[in-house]
């Protein structure tokens, strides 16, 4: 159960703090040795660690050298600028004992290096999109994660040798965490986030121009048939990148026991089928039906005159919609009495509002389009997935409609205007102190946030030359 902890550093600035905190917070019975990969020309001296000087070769090559120097079967890879919770290592070691073919990682908080203090934001599960940028996902009840961050990776040395070490064809930059995790899944292993273990890590800016080459290596080696999505997301051509030699990775494919289709459908379902819907609304008119009180003012014949109907939550019960959006498990249960599974467009995680918890969509429904929400408040820079998240299912539906590339998108029941700081709709008497809700500060904030999101989507629609029209407001 003794562990080798391997620290990657591009300079020695925060190494002492990291090592001191590691020694202070780690069970002495578990920590066998510390190897520092100092990937720079700077000097660093310390007698209680093994120092491995490298010359700007990147994490993959440096870590592989450290593996060759390690004395123990349990390996944990971290980076300088890391703070640890008490006994953080114990749950990771226990998980590796229970599942020898696993890659495991702790819950990771942000770290303010100046104060050496953790923040409240935590990353519990990870995924990626077609640009292969690592991103945090909404927490689920399952420990499985498609990938984990190279901020902390723990693995058994015997298994690491069996699956071929880190990809030493990678240059300085990012991508090694996604590659080793994808490979581990495909070669029969598992990837878990262990919720009982926590660390904090300082944010790192990727300044390497080689990261796109690293990620192209992953695509070409492990899911070549989907490579066009990666190059489209990066707005580059295959000839513009240099993957280097792929022969070692391609030899490892002989050990592959799971398909990349299995990986996407089970671990990143939002990437597996969403692109089949791109441009299917071409030369068609789309209407999105929300639940606002002004929906009572809309003529049914007008709504039914559109080519594609998108319903949001219970508004979908009023019409025969082509696509239905919800994020609530209870609403989904009611809607499924009317619609088949393939009519739904759902987030990868559904909320059970009655119980106050979450469930993976794939455990509730079989045949639907799934999407992963972006960071809250993020700008919809593209009509392609990922979708924005302004904490509104209605705004996500608008982004989906633009992704269909229709002739026009019309919105009804979107009661979220602010006029002279007052909430406003066609049924004004039901708002502003009326029966629906009083005109409180929370209402103003909610509407302002909603309007901001719709404004961002309007800018995207203008960029795509698609009229975005909101009707039936006084």
Give a quick summary of the entry.
This protein is an alpha/beta fold and 474 residues long. It has helices at residues 15-25, 59-69, 89-98, 157-162, 176-186, 211-222, 227-234, 247-252, 260-267, 269-272, 300-304, 329-335, 393-403, 441-464; strands at 3-9, 31-39, 50-54, 74-79, 82-84, 102-112, 117-123, 125-128, 134-137, 152-156, 190-201, 285-289, 308-312, 323-325, 344-347, 349-352, 357-360, 369-371, 373-376, 387-389, 408-412, 417-419, 422-424, 468-470. The strands form six sheets. Strands 1, 2, 3, 4, 5, 6, 7, 10 and 11 form a nine-stranded mixed beta sheet that branches. Strands 18-15-14-13-12-21-24 form a seven-stranded parallel beta sheet. It has a two-stranded antiparallel ribbon with strand order 8-9.
Record keyword descriptors for this entry:
Spore Coat Polysaccharide Biosynthesis Protein SpsA, Chain A, elongated, alpha/beta, 7-stranded parallel beta sheet, 14 helices, 474 residues, single chain
């Amino acid at each position: 159960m003794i562990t080798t902890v391997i620290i990657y550093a591009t300079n020695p600035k925060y190494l002492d703090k990291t090592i001191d905190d590691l020694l202070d917070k780690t069970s002495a019975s578990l920590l066998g040795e510390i190897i520092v990969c100092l990937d720079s020309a700077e000097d660093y001296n310390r007698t209680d660690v093994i120092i491995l000087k490298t010359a700007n070769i990147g994490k993959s090559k440096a870590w592989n050298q450290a593996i060759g120097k390690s004395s123990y079967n349990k390996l944990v890879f971290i980076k300088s600028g890391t703070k640890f919770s008490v006994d953080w290592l114990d749950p990771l070691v226990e998980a590796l004992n229970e599942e020898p073919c696993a890659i495991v990682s702790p819950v990771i908080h942000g770290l303010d290096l100046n104060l050496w203090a953790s923040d409240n934001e935590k990353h519990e599960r990870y995924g990626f999109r077609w640009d292969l940028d690592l991103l945090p996902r909404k927490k689920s009840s399952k420990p499985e994660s498609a990938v984990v961050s190279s901020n902390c990776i723990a693995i058994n040395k015997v298994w690491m040798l069996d699956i071929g070490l880190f990809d030493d064809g990678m240059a300085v930059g990012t991508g090694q965490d996604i590659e080793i995790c994808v490979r581990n899944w495909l070669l029969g292993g598992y990837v878990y986030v262990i919720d009982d273990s926590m660390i904090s890590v300082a944010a790192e800016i990727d300044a390497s121009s080689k990261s796109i080459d690293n990620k192209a290596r992953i695509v070409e080696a492990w899911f070549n048939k989907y490579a066009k999505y990666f190059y489209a997301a990066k707005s580059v051509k295959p000839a513009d990148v240099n993957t280097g030699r792929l022969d070692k990775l391609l030899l490892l494919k002989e050990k592959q026991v799971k398909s990349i289709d299995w990986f996407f459908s089970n671990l990143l379902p939002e990437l597996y089928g969403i692109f089949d819907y791109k441009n299917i609304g071409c030369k068609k008119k789309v209407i999105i039906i929300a639940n606002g009180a002004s929906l009572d003012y809309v003529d049914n014949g007008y709504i039914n005159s559109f080519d594609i109907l998108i319903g949001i939550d219970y508004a979908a019960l009023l019409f025969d919609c082509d696509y239905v959006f919800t994020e609530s498990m209870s609403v989904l249960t009611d809607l499924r009495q009317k619609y088949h599974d393939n009519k739904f467009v759902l987030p990868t995680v559904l909320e059970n509002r009655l119980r106050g918890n979450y469930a993976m969509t794939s455990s509730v429904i079989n045949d639907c389009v799934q999407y992963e929400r972006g960071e809250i408040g993020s700008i919809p820079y593209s009509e392609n997935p990922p979708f924005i998240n302004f904490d509104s299912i209605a705004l996500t539906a608008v982004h989906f409609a633009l992704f269909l590339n229709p002739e026009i998108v019309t919105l009804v029941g979107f009661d979220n205007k602010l006029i002279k700081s007052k909430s406003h709709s066609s049924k004004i008497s039901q708002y502003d102190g009326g029966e629906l809700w009083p005109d409180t500060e929370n209402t103003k904030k909610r509407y302002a946030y909603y309007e901001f999101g719709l404004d961002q989507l309007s800018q995207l629609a203008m960029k795509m030359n698609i009229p975005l029209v909101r009707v039936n407001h006084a």
